[in-house]
Design a protein that fits this description.
The structure holds two protein chains of two kinds. Chain A has a single domain (66-289), classed as MetI-like fold (Orthogonal Bundle), CATH 1.10.3720. Chain A is 69% helix and 2% strand. Chain A has helices at residues 2-6, 8-30, 62-98, 100-114, 118-129, 144-171, 174-181, 186-197, 200-222, 234-241, 251-278; strands at 134-136, 139-141. Chain A has a two-stranded antiparallel ribbon. By secondary structure, chain B is an all-alpha fold. Chain B has two domains: 18-72, no CATH class; 99-310, Orthogonal Bundle (MetI-like fold), CATH 1.10.3720. Chain B has helices at 2-27, 33-38, 44-53, 60-72, 86-121, 126-140, 143-157, 173-207, 210-217, 222-259, 264-274, 277-305. In chain B, helix 8 (173-207) packs across helix 10 (222-259). The chains are: A mainly alpha, B mainly alpha.
């Protein structure tokens, strides 16, 4: 593990990811102002000692909104990847280990899912179901939960494929045969021996997919289909800031964009570093296409 | 030959499955088109009449068959909101989006392939490190923010490019290309990163192959060896490029919003905000079809370039 953190890119990646995660977790305590507090007397103020990143068109503190905006971005990225990992590992592992008809059916379904373009379907599903909170039983889920569900399902194919590839190789390995001769049950072998040995590429892929999820959330919020105003989100802040490109209030669109880019760079660098460490055979391979 | 036929049939089957999912999604939403058009106060009789006029009272499978039958003939039907032809809307907006994607794609290829090849040939040197930084930054900057920055720089500060809007071809070739230059860069940079990375790793793999060492030992010229290397490194690059082309259509919709370009995003987003479900359904179907076609072409090109791997 030490060798991993000696690389400068890995350290930068880890610091950026930790920064984003801490912002999201500690938002109520570290944000200097209420992200929703409107103060029209102080609107569009440039960065100053009182407002480090200036204020927006409603006089709201941009730094505070960026800190709170980390929450929806990371929530979408992490929860969508969680759905993708659970579904992908279950399908890939069982298909690679059980084989036969189930293998065919599962992997063809995965191929079908992989042929759905993510962004346009995220736009369409939110558009068809309608923008707004989603009431499920006693809970009211925010609009982003539709994005999480759709993106999560569309994350299943890449994760199922890497798990399946690993499971195929591991199932035929000598140590698995040995375990079988010892009389270990199929389930015990599948989860105890095969699964741990094909997790490395899954971890790498999952880290890179969090980065894609963050960009998808920001893009949807930017076109008004993600986080609903006035709640802070990085994409929504950029959407508000569009008209200030012409009047020169640069802080309104530079800082939220930097927040997205730096957190995405963080997850990408971390994913690359993990790949070089965990999965060196494919170290030079490509990152996730989206 | 059979493999190709099977692959095409598979893509068509997937498209059909996608159309069923879309149809079900659109027809199980709680708000009916009649309510959207006639309002909350409309009586049950008015709703029933509206449904009868638009064929919405027929069994679902008949509605689906009518829709897919029309689509197969290139007729997407009419919007129930304002009676405009959906085919007309798609015909007006699709070429704009297609051209934007094509320009961004050419930009990505023109930058990425030389960049990736050079960084593999000079592995570990300054140019390689620079290319690596470009690829990490390129995959991480969201296209729509890059678009905003490009407008601030290229349109507002320098004034070289228009800040947005689409200038049609007939208004002059230069003005036309100027209006698409910044959007194409904003859309293409992510794929510069993806494709240059793939090119780098593919060329680096080939450079280690035995046949390259043999060619060197035989004393072939550097230039000749280079052409062999590039030729052998091509298949994975072509596949990733073709897939990228499909993905670009999704992101193009966001970029069009930034630059105020009247492409398919206008058709789709305005349909979403007007709750014009049939319009949404058809636009998504068209873009999914393009995406499937790009993936199909990626597979076929790969099989053609590297026959060893076709099953």
């Amino acid at each position: 593990m030490k060798a991993l953190w000696r690389r400068p890119e890995a350290c930068i990646g880890l610091i950026l990811v930790l920064g984003a995660v801490l912002m999201a977790l500690l938002a109520p305590w570290i944000a200097p102002y209420d992200p929703l507090a409107i103060d029209l007397a102080r609107k569009l103020m440039p960065p100053s000692a009182a407002h480090w990143m200036g204020t927006d068109q409603n006089g709201r503190d941009i730094l505070s909104r960026i800190i709170w905006g980390a929450r929806p971005s990371l929530t979408v990225g992490v929860l969508a990847v969680t759905i993708g990992v659970l579904g992908g590992v279950a399908i890939g592992l069982s298909a690679g280990y059980v084989r036969g008809l189930w293998e065919q059916a599962a992997m063809r379904t995965v191929d079908g899912l992989a042929s759905i373009p993510m962004l346009i379907w995220a736009i369409a599903v939110v558009g068809i179901v309608g923008v707004g909170p989603l009431p499920i039983g006693p809970w009211t889920l925010p609009n982003e939960s539709k994005i999480i569900l759709l993106v999560g399902i569309l994350y299943i194919p890449p994760l199922a494929r890497v798990t399946y590839g690993g499971a195929l190789v591991e199932s035929n390995a000598d140590y698995v045969r040995a375990r079988r001769m010892q009389g270990a049950s199929r389930l015990a072998i599948m989860f105890g021996d095969v699964l741990p040995n094909c997790l490395s590429p899954v971890i790498v892929q999952a880290t890179l997919l969090i980065a894609v999820g963050i960009v998808v959330e920001a893009s949807l919020s930017f076109v008004g289909l993600g986080v609903e105003p006035p709640n802070p989100s990085w994409g929504g802040m950029l959407s508000d800031a569009r008209k200030y490109i012409f009047s020169g209030e640069w802080w309104t669109y530079v800082f939220p964009g930097l927040a997205i880019s730096l957190s995405v760079i963080g997850f990408n660098l971390l994913g690359d570093a993990l790949r070089e460490f965990l999965d060196p055979r494919r170290a030079a391979g490509i990152s996730v296409v989206a | 030959m059979w493999a190709i036929g099977g692959r095409i049939a598979g893509s068509l089957a997937t498209l059909l499955a996608v159309s069923i999912v879309l149809f079900v999604l659109v027809h199980t939403i709680p708000v009916s088109p009649a309510r959207v058009v006639l309002g909350i106060d409309a009586s049950e009789a008015d709703i029933a009449e509206f449904d009868r006029d638009h064929g919405l009272d027929k069994p679902l499978w008949q509605q689906y068959a009518a829709w897919i039958g029309g689509v197969a003939k290139g007729d997407f039907g009419k919007s129930v909101i304002d009676e405009t032809s959906i085919s007309r809307q798609i015909a007006d907006t699709f070429p704009v989006t297609f051209e934007l994607v094509l320009l961004a794609f050419l930009f990505a290829l023109a930058v990425a392939i030389p960049l990736g090849a050079i960084s593999a040939l000079y592995g570990g040197q300054t140019i390689d490190h620079l290319a690596r930084i470009v690829s990490v930054v390129g995959v991480s900057i969201p296209g729509f923010w890059l678009g905003l920055i490009l407008i601030a720089w290229g349109a507002v500060s320098l004034g070289w490019f228009p800040a947005g809007g689409y200038v049609p071809w007939r208004a002059g070739a230069l003005a036309h290309l100027q209006s698409l230059a910044l959007p194409a860069i904003a859309l293409g940079l992510y794929y510069v990163a993806i494709i240059s990375r793939m090119t780098r790793s593919s060329v680096a793999d080939v450079l280690l192959a035995d046949h390259v060492r043999v060619s060197r030992a035989m004393g072939l010229s550097r230039r000749r060896i280079l052409t062999y290397v590039l030729k052998n490194a091509l298949p994975p690059v072509v596949t990733v490029s073709a897939m990228s082309f499909g993905y670009m259509f999704g992101w193009a919709l966001i970029i069009e919003q930034v630059f105020n370009i009247a492409g398919m995003s206008r058709a789709l987003l305005s349909a979403i905000f007007r709750r014009d479900y049939l319009m949404i359904e058809n636009v998504v179907l068209v873009i999914t079809a393009v995406f499937l076609a790009a993936n199909l072409i990626a597979d076929l090109l790969y099989a053609w370039l590297d026959p060893r791997l076709s099953r």
